Amino acid sequence: MYPIDVTITKIVRESPSTKTFFFDRSFEEALPGQFVMVWVRGTDEIPMTLSYKNAVTVQKVGDATAKMFELREGDHLGIRGPFGKGFTLPGPDERILIVAGGVGAAAIVMLAEYALSKDASVTTILGARNVGEMLFVYRLTPCKGLHLTTDDGSAHRCGFVTDVLVEIDSSAFDRIYICGPEMMMKCVFGILEKQGSLEKAEFSLHRYFKCGIGVCGACCMDSEGLRVCKDGPVFNGMQLIGSEFGKYMRGPGGNKKLF
Ligand SMILES: Cc1cc2nc3c(=O)[nH]c(=O)nc-3n(C[C@H](O)[C@H](O)[C@H](O)COP(=O)(O)OP(=O)(O)OC[C@H]3O[C@@H](n4cnc5c(N)ncnc54)[C@H](O)[C@@H]3O)c2cc1C
């Protein structure tokens, strides 16, 4: 698939490290949790989850994301996708729990809005380094329960999302969705495993990959060889048992990077 050329129509600064880029093409077929490959011409092509049907929300971490931050309205990007396995959609009247941290909120907010539109009962635990980095609170306000945490205590509850999670009975939910830094997700995994709730949990993984379509092998995970781009990026908790999840990931040269 060749990239589709899109024009940036609007840029919203969500936080000091994050911007949302809206474009003139809406990917109506995209399911919550699916991603697109964003071609930043002259720099790189990188995976991003759609935070709206026509937008990605980007945290500046390296070359390609820094280049995106220099772009203006009217500039162009190339988009391939949507790709990958998204979240299992919740049914009407289901009780769902969302646990999101940092830019992981961008990957999960469309799912929350879908669930709310189906009258599911949505409880969200949302964490960030500090209050300025907390994303999309305004889109999550309609949730039945919204628990906010900041690492530095600059607002809301001081602590991690897991501090709230241990106080919640996860068995009361039909589905649990998680996206955030991998160490955060690993801690959530441990709590849900202890509570016997892994089977109904889905984790969205952010790993380095090149092709996005299951060919290059850059994102294969030990020990089963599951490809994050094709078999994921959303995985059921049971699929991650005994895998490299939370232990290490591979960088561009295939070298292991320990968490
Ligand atoms: C399915 C998927 C969805 C994603 N969705 C979003 C999103 O919605 N918003 C967002 O801001 N980011 C998202 N990411 C992460 C994003 O792809 C990386 O931050 C981006 O590729 C970094 O590119 P760079 O050139 O700016 O940084 P680089 O210079 O390549 O790297 C900077 C740092 O980020 C790490 N890194 C690089 N690529 C990835 C990656 N793919 N996953 C995790 N860490 C990486 C590197 O190890 C390094 O430490 C997603 C990743 C995946 C796999």
TrEMBL record:
Its cofactor is [2Fe-2S] cluster. Transmembrane segments: none annotated. It holds the Pfam family DHODB_Fe-S_bind. [2Fe-2S] cluster binds at C211, C216, C219, C229. Binds 1 [2Fe-2S] cluster per subunit. One of its GO terms (molecular function) is oxidoreductase activity. Coiled coil: none annotated. Residues 1-89 form the FAD-binding FR-type domain. InterPro entries: Cyt_c3_hydrogenase_gsu, Dihydroorotate_DH_ele_sf, Dihydroorotate_DH_Fe-S-bd, FAD-bd_FR_type, FNR_nucleotide-bd, PyrK_electron_transfer, Riboflavin_synthase-like_b-brl. One of its GO terms (biological process) is pyrimidine nucleotide biosynthetic process. Keywords: 2Fe-2S, Electron transport, FAD, Flavoprotein, Iron, Iron-sulfur, Metal-binding, Transport. It comes from the Archaea. Belongs to the PyrK family. This is Dihydroorotate dehydrogenase electron transfer subunit. It comes from Methanolobus halotolerans. The lineage of its organism: Archaea, Methanobacteriati, Methanobacteriota, Stenosarchaea group, Methanomicrobia.
